[in-house]
Specification:
ADH-like_N; ADH-like_C; 11 helices; NADPH:quinone oxidoreductase family protein; 15 strands; oxidoreductase; 2 domains; about 325 residues; Quinone Oxidoreductase, Chain A, domain 1; Zn-ADH-like_protein; Rossmann fold; globular
Length: about 325
Amino acid sequence: MQAWFCDNPIGVDALQWREAPTPQPQAGQVLLAVKAASLNFPDLLIVENKYQFKPPLPFVPGSEFAGVVEAVGEGVTAFKPGDRVAALAGNGGFGSHAIVPADKLFPLPDAMSYEHGAAFAFTYGTSIHALLDRGRLKAGETVLVLGAAGGVGTAAVQIAKAAGARVIAAASSDEKCALCKEIGADETINYSSANLREALKALTGGKGPDVVYDPVGGDLAEPVFRSIAWRGRYLVIGFAGGGIPALPWNLALLKGADLVGVFWGDFVRREPAGFQRDMRQLGQWYAEGKVKPLVHQTLPMSDLHKAYAMMSGRQVIGKLVLTP
């Protein structure tokens, strides 16, 4: 097999493409031939030693991928060689083959391509868990999605619309805002040029959004929290903007608002039945055409450094997918 190995998590430049013996699956494991892998923000953090999960060295990054089962280990009965599957393994995707625990796999629907399979579960799983479970979103409520043109952002826009909400998509350029309109957003805000608080006030009649979906953090958090509706729910997804905000706690008191943490990875581990429920709902919406991964570009696996540079430079609308 061949893969991108991280021997020292000091950044993307330390990743090396090299050959290694193809491993054989042990009990409870599956050997997967990787057909497509997507790049997610945690894949950047993990090679910089900044992510919550720190795998033993050396490791192959790539948390989300899809492919074909080549072999199964002892005790694996849910999958067999030849099955098309998607994987949420935490790492291992940026290579030609990967060893994956069988409980980290799920069947790929016949109608779903490997590229869509590799770009689906992480962002859509995060967003449905955030909005419906943690955010208690109801039909008719207003959702503000920050970073709405990114991977989780585009998923959140589509899921909120599928759930019957009114969606305000906020992004950093007119081009990104136009894309958000195309995928279903009711209104958009370019927060690079507009006053975010004034725009939210105008678009909500002074009420503010009921639910805020925030994968950005940084300087946007406080003005948005000041704009949230009474009994609003502010969903903390991540900090792609680079900074972890420090909010005055009196803001939550004055608005009767909830500040809600969303840690999807641990949700999948701790509440597997809830994860399976969410994936069934997403599969139904996918079949109905209500959700569809937005693939910004498909690159060869050899261009991983370029893909990382595009992500860190905020040049990606939707998801980047890599293929062998």
